[in-house]
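We modelled the chain as a single entity of 60 amino acids. Its sequence is:
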Amino acid sequence: MKKASNCETCLYYIYDDDYECYFCEINLDEDEMAHFLSGSNFDCPYYHLDDEYAIVRKQM
């Protein structure tokens, strides 16, 4: 499984209407969060491509 760090294309990156902003709904542990905030190349182990057309392609 390839890890990635592009949050904008991740399934878990959602918009919260109450706060009017995007956030990740995955809770990173302390080490993962420190690595993410350090600004280095962070490869998120929970990244999942938000491909809304995957089911349609499967049916074809």
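As a brief sanity check on the tokenised model: The beta strands are 13-16, 21-24. The first helix runs from residue 30 to 37.
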